[in-house]
Amino acid sequence: MQKLTLTRPDDWHLHLRDGEALKAVLPHSARQFARAIVMPNLNPPIRTVADAAAYRDRILAALPAGQTFEPLMTLYLTDNTTPEEIIAAKASKFVKAVKYYPAGATTNSDFGVTDIRKCDRIFATMEQEDIPLLLHGEVTNIEVDVFDREKVFIEKHLIPLVSRFPKLRVVLEHITTSEAVEFVLSANHNIAATITPQHLLFSRNALFKGGIRPHYYCLPILKREKHRLVLLQAATSGNPKFFLGTDSAPHARNTKERSCGCAGCYSALHAMELYAEAFEGVDALDKLEAFASFYGPDFYQLPRNTEKITLEKKTWCIPNEVPFPDAGLVPLRAGEEISWQFI
Ligand code: NCD
Ligand code: ZN
pLDDT class for 160, splitting at 50, 70, 90? Predict the structure, then answer.
């Protein structure tokens, strides 16, 4: 039996939700990952250090007995975020980053920033405090084609942003295009990116295989195969600028399978198996540990984990559904076989 032993990984981009939903999904992440950067897009969002402290307490309280997990908190940037809040975030120690969503880009982003230039005062403070900026890197203009929104964001907003704030640490989250990979590769060492399992495993064809498949719909949307191949090359290249962030984003089945379904793929249940399959597909399993367990903490200036985990080469069937409030939750690639198992 082939086994893969790795340093315990962390998830550098995770949606945990709140209340009963949080209770349903947290054990999955805590089983595989030691820590996660927790997204602040609740409704209403986590905008202050006080909000983040209370949310962190709720996450820790929702953790089943016997499991350990460290939530690394983020603040949701709005037009009204103050420099004082950034300074307080840095001083808190448990707030690790600030998340930028363009208003209207994705789930619960209505509070997001209406014009990135309005935040220059905040970015200056973040640069000074050395607190990372996490970007949902898509423009939201309705006239821009949905498949081009990341590329246009990089050209119009990101290149100017990093030239205005050259020392700001930036993570371009859940990258999906060759343009994003090229940008990150050409940028300074303080610019990194996270990559999800779905963008390594699927092209946009998965959205339409035999019919419309809402459980493959996430934002940024899956792209052409040529982009997937570039992402896979980046993830398996051994370049520390690219690291693991699942963007596991749970939505109850009935909110995805409807005339206007929510964006988000659920992968916390089987994240490491999905990544292992993607890396194995290009014969790069030897690059998985650094991508999953080393480059993230290095970028965030945190210690690497010391505990180990094991993946076994063993085929199992991803469940059709896992329990979740209101309706079940459909994991990515539900009902299909996967050839690695986290044990
Ligand atoms: C995320 C969610 O549901 O919160 N959805 C998604 O498709 N990725 C929001 C986000 O990260 O864009
Ligand atoms: Zn996300």
Answer: very high
Ligand 1 atom closest to the Cα of residue 264 is 7
Catalytic annotation on 247?
yes
- CATH architecture, domain defined by 3-342: Alpha-Beta Barrel (3.20)
Amino acid 132: pLDDT: 98
Question: Residue 1: is its pLDDT beyond 80?
Answer: no
The number of the ligand 1 atom at minimal distance from the alpha carbon of 41 is 4
From ligand 1's centre to the CA of 313, what distance in Å?
30
Question: pLDDT (tens digit, 9 = 90+) per residue, 75-114?
Answer: 999 999 999 999 999 999 999 999 999 987 777 777 889 9
Residue 108 is predicted with a pLDDT of: 75
pTM of the model: 0.97
Mutate to test the pocket of ligand 1, among 17, 46, 196, 219 (most ligand atoms within 8 A of CB): 219
Domain boundaries, the chain: 3-342
Using CB distances shorter than 6 Å, the residues near ligand 1 are: 15, 41, 106-107, 136, 218-219, 247, 249, 263-264
Helix (H) or strand (E) holding 13: strand 11-14
Structure tokens, 178 = 């060759």
Contact 61, 79 (CB under 8 A): no
**What are phi and psi for residue 304, nearest 5 degrees?**
-70, 150
User: Which residue among 120, 247, 298, 326 is the active-site one?
Assistant: 247
3-state DSSP helix/strand/coil % of the chain, to nearest 5: 40, 20, 40
